[in-house]
Amino acid sequence: SAAGVWGGLVQAGGSLRLSCAASGYTFSRHGMGWFRQAPGKGREFAAGINRSGSNTLYADSVKGRFTISRDNAKNTVYLQMNILKPEDTAVYYCAAVRESVLRLTAYIDDYPYWGKGTQVTVSS
User: Fold this and answer.
1) Could you give the CA distance from residue 81 to residue 54 in angstroms, rounded to a whole number?
2) How far apart are CA 66 and CA 84, in angstroms?
3) Which residues pair with 121 in a beta bridge?
4) Exposure of 95 by Cβ count < 10 A (0-12 exposed, 13-18 middle, 19+ buried)?
5) Among 33, 28, 31, 27, which Cα is nearest to 5's?
6) Tell me: the pLDDT tens digits for 72-120?
7) Is 91 helix (H, G, I), strand (E, B) or coil?
């Protein structure tokens, strides 16, 4: 499971950092990702990071604005969100990649472990 995901309310152009502390599995054996779900829409991939933190993958909609990182010593994955836009408003979820999947992936079915979502609201 994952816990400790804190979102919030921010104005457009602002920044927010999400943190997700994982437990119940060996964190360093899993790639990690962030997904988001806007009202009335499906859950979509935002960013992913490999086990060591050496490689990352981003959706086009967040590329250049969001940065995913991880600290394996703290079992924590982060999402730094800059230049936020109203269309970034969504519930954000952290998720762990299935241990057998070694590649970076945006495929939701590769993520069987999910944290509690947190609301991020960007006002215009």
Assistant:
1) 19
2) 9
3) 9
4) buried
5) 33
6) 999 999 999 999 999 999 999 999 999 999 999 999 999 999 998 999 9
7) strand
Considering only CA atoms, which of 60, 62, 121, 59 is closest in space to residue 90? 121
Residue 59, both tokens: 């959706």
**What is the distance between the alpha carbons of residues 111 and 8, in angstroms, rounded to a whole number?**
24
Which pair of structure tokens corresponds to residue 86? 């109203």
Which letter, b or e, does each residue of 51-79 get, where b requires 16 or more Cβ atoms within 10 Å of its Cβ? bebeebbbbeebeeebbbebeeeebbbbb
Q: How far apart are CA 18 and CA 40, in angstroms?
A: 22
How is the chain split among helix, strand and coil, in percent rounded to 5? 5, 45, 50
Chain segment 30-73, per-residue pLDDT in tens: 999 999 999 999 999 999 999 999 999 999 999 999 999 999 99
Let me know: does 66 contact 80? Beta carbons within 8 Å: yes
